[in-house]
Amino acid sequence: MSNIKGKVIVITGASSGIGEATARLLAQNGANVVIGARRTERLATLAAAIRSEGGSVEYQTLDVTNQKQVQTFIDFAHKIFGRVDVILNNAGVMPLSPLEALKIDEWNRMIDVNIRGVLHGIAAGLPLMKKQGFGQFINIASIGAYTVSPTAAVYCATKFAVRAITEGLRQEVGGDIRVTLVSPGVTESELAESISDEKGREEMKEFRRISISPNAIARAIMYAIEQPAEVDVSEIIVRPTASL
Ligand code: NDP
């Protein structure tokens, strides 16, 4: 029997891109997926598509910058299915710009969604997982968690932070709770659409020519989940073959 079947997998930022592809793949493999994001209509459409293929899915509107909403989201999953096996902290934004453009609101938005959003997921899920005696956090970082590039200082800082938080969590919880960091390279999604700065937008256009499918990241996430309980895949980097 697949190690995915029957698992309750909660996904933030599932209305497009990597989150959406992962929800589809895991549901196709028998998981109960619980999907959240701000765009409720997109979630409803995705849920209908998953159900039409016989998959199990529930959805709830979610803004990960709001701790209460994240707690309600995790509680919603737990109430319906009686357990939570995996929390995939995937929601993220990437409005790139050079620091000198002083897009302070965008810096704060990245910090709020990319860092605080992940912390909110941990805060909402950790007590439950400790009580259950099992669980897995999968946090989505980026290749930007390892190197910094122009226009991406703040974005990379948030992803360095996600990597640090994930490693710290792994060291602290150990035992029955698994902790995984998945770091994608450039992947087809709507992520670059939030770039308001012209320079950041131009740089990204060139960079995104070699994008890989979000399914490639979904498969890496599934790999980390389907390992036996005693196997903790701590870190995976998936990038286009063509990257430098
Ligand atoms: P998308 O823009 O397609 O997806 C981002 C998702 O995050 C959307 O579902 C969006 O939904 C959600 N989101 C944004 N803000 C919030 C919020 N405040 N609360 C809840 N959900 C939110 O991009 P990707 O699929 O590429 O991004 C997924 C993750 O992968 C991100 O963490 C990103 O940083 C990371 N990543 C992506 C790479 C790439 O090249 N695509 C490379 C490296 C990492 P909604 O707007 O409906 O809320």
UniProtKB/TrEMBL annotation:
| GO MF terms held by the record | oxidoreductase activity, acting on the CH-OH group of donors, NAD or NADP as acceptor
InterPro entries for the chain: KR_dom, NAD(P)-bd_dom_sf, Sc_DH/Rdtase_CS, SDR_fam
Keyword Oxidoreductase assigned:
yes
Instruction: Enumerate the spans annotated as Ketoreductase domain.
Output: 7-187
Please give the superkingdom of this protein's source: Bacteria
Q: Which UniProt keywords apply?
A: Oxidoreductase
- SMART domains assigned to the protein according to its UniProt record, in alphabetical order: PKS_KR
Q: Which family does it belong to?
A: Belongs to the short-chain dehydrogenases/reductases (SDR) family.
Protein name in the entry: SDR family oxidoreductase
